[in-house]
């Protein structure tokens, strides 16, 4: 695995046929990230946590996997993350009233809590052979409170043996249809 922000091509050029893995690209983030996000909003693309893939066929399916380690400021904070493809949200929950539509949502207490979110989903259509970029954006589902959200570290991040530093990653697989 490369350094933080590196993209690693794990497999490429498998024999074409239904259900064959044609390519696998991943990015692993070992450093930390923080962002202040206003109430009931989605943040910016997490720096260093993106994959750009150029499908070999428009009929392919793209499988996206992630492992995100996240924490946030404040007691009883609500957060999570969403997948974005070329700047548009994908694979988020249905809109329902005032609820925020996200890929993964969570509720956690403050301080030294670091939540690991492993999330995978079935597929997205490739739709073209143009390069497409998948990103992660954090979200703040809290009502009326701007919060700071962190990747790969706890909120307080003190230099103590009860604190953690983690790794996050995103992987995209092209599968023949």
Describe the structure.
By secondary structure, the protein is mainly β. Helix content is 0%, strand content 52%. It is built from no helices and 13 strands. The strands form two sheets. Strands 1, 2, 3, 5, 9, 10, 12 and 13 form an eight-stranded antiparallel β-sheet that branches. A hairpin with an 8-residue loop joins strand 1 and strand 2. The radius of gyration is 17 Å and the shape is globular.
Summarize the helices and strands and which ones pair or pack.
Blueprint: E1 7-12, E2 21-29, E3 33-37, E4 41-53, E5 61-72, E6 77-85, E7 88-90, E8 104-108, E9 115-120, E10 124-125, E11 132-140, E12 147-151, E13 168-175
Antiparallel strand pairs: 1-2, 2-13, 3-12, 4-11, 5-9, 5-10, 5-12, 5-13, 6-7, 6-8, 6-11
- Tell me the overall shape: globular
The number of strands is 13
Uncertain spans: none
Q: Mean pLDDT, as a whole number?
A: 79
| N-to-C series of helices and strands | EEEEEEEEEEEEE
Strand proportion, as a percent range, falls in over 45%
Main attributes of the structure:
13 strands, eight-stranded antiparallel β-sheet, 177 residues, mainly beta, globular, five-stranded antiparallel β-sheet
Summary of the model, kept short:
The chain contains no helices and 13 strands.
């Amino acid at each position: 695995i490369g350094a933080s922000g590196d993209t690693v091509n794990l497999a490429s050029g498998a024999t074409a046929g239904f259900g064959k893995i044609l390519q696998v690209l991943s990015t692993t983030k070992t450093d930390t990230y923080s962002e202040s996000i206003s109430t009931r909003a989605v943040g910016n693309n997490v720096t260093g946590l993106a994959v750009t893939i150029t499908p070999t066929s428009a009929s392919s399916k793209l499988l996206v996997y992630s492992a995100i380690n996240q924490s946030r400021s404040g007691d009883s904070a609500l957060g999570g993350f969403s997948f974005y493809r070329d700047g548009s949200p994908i694979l988020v929950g249905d809109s329902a009233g005032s609820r925020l539509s996200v890929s993964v949502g969570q509720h956690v207490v403050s301080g030294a809590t670091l939540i690991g979110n492993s999330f995978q989903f079935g597929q997205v259509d490739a739709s073209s052979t143009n390069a497409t970029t998948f990103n992660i954006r954090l979200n703040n589902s809290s009502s009326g409170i701007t919060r700071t959200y962190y990747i790969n570290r706890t909120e307080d991040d003190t230099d103590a043996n009860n604190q953690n530093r983690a790794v996050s990653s995103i992987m995209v697989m092209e599968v023949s249809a």
